[in-house]
Specification:
- This protein is 89% helix and 0% strand.
- The protein is mainly alpha-helical.
């Protein structure tokens, strides 16, 4: 699989995973999203950084 195909596949998988919670439990997803909008910017940045680190670690582990 070439790099472009792998990136498109990764994007597709991310969209599928992101869509599971709103599909299965829209009320819980809405509430979680509402609470996240109330977090301070610094806390959102930490959450985003942690998410990127975990994702990078998973990619490195797979390869």
């Amino acid at each position: 699989m070439e790099l472009r195909e792998a990136l498109i596949a990764a994007l597709g998988l991310m969209l599928v995973l992101e869509g599971i919670l709103p599909f299965v439990a829209p009320g819980a997803w809405r509430e979680a999203f509402r609470r996240m909008t109330e977090l301070p910017d610094a806390q959102l940045r930490v959450i985003g950084l942690a998410s990127m680190i975990v994702g990078l670690a998973l990619l490195l582990w797979v390869h």
